[in-house]
């Protein structure tokens, strides 16, 4: 069954601790942190201090999506704060192979992220080195954006590149009850959803519906 990674970006920042603690019981599989630096994307979000303080409140893996200009500078901060998985944008790294190796040097999983306009062929030399590939359904930077209609097609193409390798395929951005089945059918293993999960504080019902079991 598809796994759900609620994006904390959509939660009430005054109640992050409560939200994280509730997600364990609500059926979430990961907790997703959209880390933005105000340079690579025009927004500022989570510093490593937030991860470190939230880590004791959840048994779920912390999935950290770096949307930053210099990922190699930030990786040690988030790895040491409790990240279980770190993804970075290929265009942000001067040496993606080196960046992957840096993440893995902390004993955690490494992933790469593709924006809607990224060339999927950039994955080819790296596909045997990563644990996860994240395909964006919107332009990175802000939550609540409209889902790009060609995202399922890009997921299917990425899935073909993955082949039989034990690599998770994640999709992030604009995920809702209508397009979630399209992403699942296209091969997504993990759906990152923010607004849809946190809507009306009905975490368990929303997660179950996204998984198609409600």
- What percentage of the residues does DSSP assign to strands (E)? 15-25%
Name the structural class.
alpha/beta
Order of helices and strands: EHEHEHEHEEHEHEHH
- In total, the number of strands is 8
Which architecture does the CATH hierarchy give at level 2?
Answer: Alpha-Beta Barrel
Name the assembly state. single chain
Largest sheet: 8 strands, parallel
Q: CATH top level? A: Alpha Beta
Helical residues, percent? 25-40%
Count the DSSP helices. 8
> What's the rounded overall pLDDT mean?
94
Poorly predicted ranges? none
Count of spatially separate domains: 1
Distance between the termini: 13 Å
CATH topology: TIM Barrel
Shape call:
globular
- The rounded Rg comes to 16 Å
Main sheet: which strands, in order across? 1-8-7-6-5-4-3-2
CATH superfamily: Aldolase class I
